[in-house]
Amino acid sequence: MKARKRYALMTKSVKQIHVSCGIIRQGDLTLAVQRSGGMRLPLKWEFPGGKIEPGESPEECLRRELMEELDLRVQVGQALNPMTHAYAAFTVILYPFICAVASGKIFLHEHEAFAWLSPAGLLTLDWAEADRPVLGAYLETLGVRESKTASS
Prior knowledge:
By secondary structure, the chain is α+β, with helices and mostly antiparallel strands. It is 24% helix and 35% strand. The radius of gyration is 17 Å and the shape is globular. It starts with a helix and ends in an 11-residue tail after the last helix.
């Protein structure tokens, strides 16, 4: 019986969260947002977005979340490959899209701060772990090599 319980604990599934995120460009600059102190992963930087609701496409989710969180309407463009990151308590699957602002002015409803940064500037931020591979893939699309490791 003990062996069965141990096996059940080892195979217990970790919660998976499916999240869309927007890599929002404006000219040569890209938007990054800082999580608030009250959020999970406080004060880490990320690409904005949120959880995909049942029956919602990643693109629909991204449009909804960016309106709710930032008051921005975006034109969703190129999709990057989904990326998975396992935190201790959950696993996040990120669906990143390169976007452009269609309308609106940023108003922070949930985040602490935002910044429009060059590729080199993005590398100076303390990114949430799940967003680091997204940042790397995005920089690759720009032909930028990561000469500096993003902060931990």
